Amino acid sequence: MDILNALVLFANYVFVPATAYGAQLALGALGVTLIFGILRFANFAHGELMSFGTMAVILATWALQDMGVSLGPLPTALLALPFGIAVTVVFALLTDRYVFRFYRVKKSDPIIYAIASVGVMFVMAGLIRVIIGPDDQSFADGARFIITARDFKELTGLEEGLAIRVTQVITIIVALAVMAVLFWFLQRTRSGKAMRAYSDNEDLALLSGIDPDKVVRMAWIITAILATIAGTLYGLDKTYKPFIFQQILLPIFAAAILGGIGQPVGAILGGFVVAYSEVTITYAYKKFLAYLGPEGWAPEGLMQFLSTDYKFAVSFIILVAVLLVRPTGIIRGKVI
Amino acid sequence: MKKRIVATIAAAIVSTTAAAEEVKIGMLQGFTGPTESLVGPMAMGGDLAIQEVSDSGLFLGGMTVVSVRGDSTCIDAAAATAAAERLITSEGVAAINGATCSGATTAVVNNVAVPNGIVMISPSATSPALSTIEDNGLFFRTAPSDARQGEIMANVLNNRGVKSVALTHTNNDYGKGLADAFQAAYEASGGSVTAVAAHEDGKADYSAEVGALAAAGGEVLVVAGYLDQGGKGMIQASLDSGAFDTFMLPDGMVGDSLTDNFGDAIDGSFGTVPGTDSPGAAMMTDVAEGKGFNGTDPYVPEAYDASALILLAMQSAGSTKSEDFKSHVEKVANAPGEQIFPGELAKALQILADGGEIDYVGGTAVELIGSGEASGSYREVEVKGGKFETVTYH
């Protein structure tokens, strides 16, 4: 029995990476859920919007690095975030003006919006590849680790190491801060209340004098901010490659639907549930159980529920199960 | 006007008689597709040997040799088959230097080379499956099979006293073939492979794959992947989580971009790449000097050797018919006889014309074994101070 080593092992391979991943998914799912709440359609272009925002941040980061600006141990990308957000907000508003407004005026069905958003997704994907190319871009600088596995082992004398990266901590702190500001905005400010009213009952909101154009504009601005931050954090923590933002769309939608579509709290909850499920189900528990079991004993197999190849299948299973069993999600949201 | 027509006809007759004295060799390589950056210099290397033989004036009593190019791509077996078909039926090539990739090579051997009875020597197809292909003695390769690399990797690990490893491979024919070959060789020599996990190229995050491998344990992580792709991601995730800090890197992982990326963080990691300390490698560099390519580029010496073996076998047999000279390929490649290095093809032609024997060494120390494939010389490298350094040769 060696509970301490088992816990450290679990934290290193499951808890810390899954928490950072969950925070990234939650930010992405918040954007999807907001657009669904206000504009009432599933925005498939959200992944590419994240990618676009990250690209803008990367370009700004490179410019800053060329000028010799740096944040010391923190990544320069944090400094470039406001610029990336500004560009992405303008881009999102232009997309709405030239694509989605047309369907809004015509009062189209949500499914038509959704299909239009698929078109927007492909155009954005092409644009991104023209501007920055399809390759890997690394833009993380500053210190990489708060504590490395080796240092941790020396410090504590344990057999297992716990590595904590700077980007993981930044991800969690920034995500919490953004969520706090978002909820304050939605609950306390006039615009936020207008948005919630519009989301709850459009006709009633219009009767009480809420300007629908303003609400839609606010929704896009907030979504663009969330998308840029989520994409940048994901890129810093892992790597930036245009292709992966199409892959990440599935877990993000799973998170939004699981939490209850149109429900910000649900999106955050969903993000973490999906992230923890993906990681815990594909983790091999052999060593973990060996520490918990009697001395010198180890399980025969790898003790893995699903091979890591099936990581994305986990979000898919969650998605299907939720739609079958509880289509409204954990927190009662809209039904797609 | 009449005079001009007569002159043209006369010229045509003259040129066809000249063509009768000309031997064509097909240069069937993957000029487009995933290997296009490798193939440019390879084809030039193959052409260089052809040029050398042709210029010597000693080939089969003064015949000239020209190369005809065909695009085998790397992943499109149908395109490779069509290109090979064209080379043989409409160009009338006597033999083929190619193809580049294992999949395309397999298709061409089965569908074109064997039915038409044409000798084919691949400079770069490394799949173990090609060792057992039904080829009627027509197919050879100057590149070693990955099965051979698997054995070398097992040897390197045993020499270093590593008893257990975890293994990850890129999820394609190359990765799977090499991983299987390595696992079989290593386990046969007493080592243990704790876990095998495939990784997909082009993902952002490999921490789950590394987590599974770390749970199984192992002193070293063997990464049979690509250095600019998932292989890099696997190493990054291993270093980040502290799961592994020593890596065994087969040929697809050895390159400067890996050490540029990780620097001395992977010090002590080691790998194997095709390479030889025979003087032939250095002479290959000299021969290629000023020809627009580099003699040390991957598979360039192999391509040169493939062309040279075809032509020397023809000289030895005194015939350009595949049926006649196919049995002479191994004869000129292996001992006994006078050793022949790159740039000495004229000497070799003379010896063969005089009825002597040669042992073609070439740029890669060619030694054909088994079903006519290179035994394979490998260079063992180790990362020291953030740079790949050669340790020894196998």
Distance between the termini of chain A: 49 Å
Alpha-beta content class of chain A: mainly alpha
Helix content of chain A: over 70%
Annotated CATH architecture of chain A: Orthogonal Bundle
Give the overall form of chain A. globular
What is the mean predicted local confidence, pLDDT of chain A? Answer: 90
Query: Please, how many domains of chain B?
Result: 2
Strand-residue proportion of chain B: 15-25%
Rounded to the nearest angstrom, the distance between the terminal CA atoms of chain B is 69 Å
> Which sheet architecture does the biggest sheet of chain A show?
2 strands, antiparallel
Q: Say which CATH homologous superfamily of the largest domain in chain B is assigned.
A: Response regulator
Give a structural overview:
The complex is a heterodimer of chains A (336) and B (394). By secondary structure, chain A is mostly helical. Chain A has one domain (3-325): ABC transporter involved in vitamin B12 uptake, BtuC. Chain A is built from 14 helices and two strands, in the order ααααβαβααααααααα. Chain A has helices at residues 3-39, 46-66, 77-105, 110-132, 149-156, 166-188, 190-200, 202-207, 212-237, 244-247, 249-259, 264-282, 286-292, 311-325, and strands at residues 145-147, 164-165. Chain A has a two-stranded antiparallel ribbon. The longest helix of chain A has 37 residues, at 3-39. The longest helix of chain B has 21 residues, at 36-56. Chain B is elongated, with a radius of gyration of 23 Å. In chain B, α2 (36-56) packs parallel to α11 (300-317) and α5 (146-159) crosses α6.
